[in-house]
Amino acid sequence: MKDAAAAVAAPSPADTAALETSFIRSLVRQIRAHDTTGMWDQKPDTALLAPFVLTREQRRQIPIIADPDAKVLWRLEQFYDAVALLISDEAGVIATPMLQLSREGYGRVVVIAGMLVVLSRQLRDVHRFGFDTLTHLAAEGEGLVAAGVAAVNRHPEVALA
């Protein structure tokens, strides 16, 4: 992935701004929490986020025939874990993601707070999970968090149940 290495070396000004968003900080915190050996301590945030950035051409080259790759599934879980973590932080309730996928890469993710489903999303072609830029990654994450927090604010009694 030559493009991912280039993204690590020189993020665009927009991507630099995206690194300061609460979602990206939450995602990096989530990724670093899984580093039990300290191998990623010296890596910059852009290096940890590089696998989330795939150009359209890179996504087209990924076959969707076999089971989704374990690394892709891990990134998918980290993304929605970061969404749930930030919803928890901003709404003041414990939010938990639940992910169900078929072997073909189709499924659903829901984020639950109490008895409230704060986010429900249909997933397809998870083999090709990724974003064009860090800015797009941040915008998608921030949008999902905003929707989740809004759901909690609309129904706080259900989210606290």
Question: Which characteristics define this entry?
Answer:
globular, 3-stranded antiparallel beta sheet, Putative cytoplasmic protein, 8 helices, 3 strands, 161 residues, alpha+beta
Can you walk through the features of this model?
The protein has a single domain, classed as Putative cytoplasmic protein, CATH 1.10.3100.20. 52% of the residues lie in helices and 14% in strands. It has eight helices and three strands, in the order ααααααβββαα. A three-stranded antiparallel beta sheet has the order 1-2-3. Strand 1 and strand 2 form a beta hairpin. Helix 3 crosses helix 6 and helix 6 crosses helix 7. The longest helix has 22 residues. The N terminus is likely disordered.
> What is the CATH architecture assignment?
Orthogonal Bundle
CATH homologous superfamily classification = Protein of unknown function DUF269
Compute the CA-based radius of gyration. Answer: 16 Å
Strand ordering within the main sheet: 1-2-3
Order of helical and strand elements: HHHHHHEEEHH
Assign the CATH class: Mainly Alpha
The strand count comes to: 3
